[in-house]
Amino acid sequence: MLDDGSNAPDPGDISPPVRDLQDIPSVEVISRAAVMLLSAAAERLGLADEDPDTSPHRDLDEARRLITALAGLVTASAEYLGVHAAPLRDGLQSLQKAFREATAVPVAPGQGPGEKYTGPVI
Q1: How do the domains of the chain map onto residue ranges?
Q2: Where are the alpha helices (DSSP H) in the chain?
Q3: How far apart are CA 23 and CA 21, in angstroms?
Q4: In this predicted model, what pLDDT tens digit does every residue of 40-97 receive, in sequence order?
Q5: Is 76 exposed, middle or buried (0-12, 13-18, 19+ CB in 10 A)?
Q6: Residue 38: helix, strand or coil by DSSP?
């Protein structure tokens, strides 16, 4: 935007309008945070690459942290998420299972990432 004193938008500016956080419903903020955690955990599990076992992005310690944070968020906010809760829980459970498959050291039921919030995932 050029500062010509008119406050008119620059016709060349194609960026989306910026929304103030106060204008965004809480369910949208929570859902966006959950999707970010879900995506980051999938990356750290190497799931975005053709062969997760050789992924340069794989970091199971980081994945554990992200999955645990996601589990806490989804569990604590499930009552507010409405129709978004089930898909987020499904995605979380998929990540928990993928973590179990990826780890070289077997993890006891209830001891996997986020399972203190979700219960055992087998």
Answers
A1: 24-102
A2: 26-44, 60-81, 85-102, 115-118
A3: 5
A4: 999 999 998 888 888 899 999 999 999 999 999 999 999 999 999 999 999 999 999 9
A5: exposed
A6: helix
